[in-house]
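Form 7-S
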Amino acid sequence: MADIGSPNFRSEEKLRSEGTTGKVSTEILIIGGGIAGTSTAYYLSQCGHEVTLLEQSEIAAEASGLNAGTLWATGWGTPADLSTTLSMGGLQIYQSLQFDLGYDIEFRQCGALKVIQTEEEYSFISAHVHDLKSQGHNVELLKGRDARCIEPELSPHLLGSLYYPLGASADPVKTTRAFASAAQQHGARIYLNHAVSAIASNDNGTYVVTTPQAVFHTKILLIAAGPWSRPIGAMLGLNIPVYAVRGQMWSTGPVPTRIFHTIGAAESALYWNKHPGDTTTQPLELTHQNGVRLTRHLYGRQTRDGEIIFGGDRQLNQGKIPEQSGIETNREHSCEIFPFLRSFPIQRTWAGWMPFTPSLEPLIGKLPYFEHLYILSGLSSSGFEQGPMAGKLLADYIHSGVASPILEAADPARQVTIP
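Output:
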């Protein structure tokens, strides 16, 4: 396996000490060192472009490294849409990172289960499975006993599970750093602790990006700053409708293997289907509105080192400090699914911001009103699953000058405006 900390991947300490001063020129400048920025940097540098990436703190320090590392692929379907393309393409990319490029990202195609607790949920999931299978997707509806045959610790009170045979998991920090490593091996330069303070657009179509350490001049600028995309866009007078939605998680300490699949619950999917929401007031599919809980949301898995991790809350306009009541609600939900978890106390909690657009439609492509200005953001809670393929498609677009037709649904011109 490739060593992500090998000499080919300059250590974060070395990158910090290198810094830079004065003026730096580059063909392509990427703002953001999460899964979106690092994957795009990899594919662009692989095509021979001169790529520089700026990260305000550390690689994978934010949502790209704080998520559960779950993948919910359902197959390509007929015809494949944007979401399916990003998910299935991402799955193939993860397979390649692990088995072709040799990065140990702890990838495992373990399958995924979305558990069903009520009769109403069962009816909803049954109809959903019928629709997916009619479109060629690879999913199955399992009765409770059948689900326990492949996940024995599930509660006997569950009515069943939606089974994703192609579901998978990987370590989010190792994965994001693997993309950074691969990008550097193809010549990309990565600067950590370089927070962007100003951006100017020159008359000749180039950009000047200022950080406290240096001034960067670039022909092509890509915003891949996740929930910070809105303030970055504002530096150019753009209204980028990306909102910071807090997700929070908790974990046990390392314990013997008890959970084998990626795990979710149907409760929130049913609620959001019944209450689609109003995008004029907040993004879709949140667990809270004005501080009041609307639904419980649950996802998690057991990691290779034995930690059992779960999370779920999605709250707008909240800080990154976990809310204890939300953590306890999520833990109680997980204990309903896996009763044995009551024996294992919480060892740590954490939270991070996810980039949601009001409609949950991502922004992938050329930004309006400017030349050679691109964005990859707004992947909501699916950034880890869909970010790598989004990065590849955007890199192909920048390299060839031709956008894949599948990206039409993510055209930034549909959402980005000038105030």
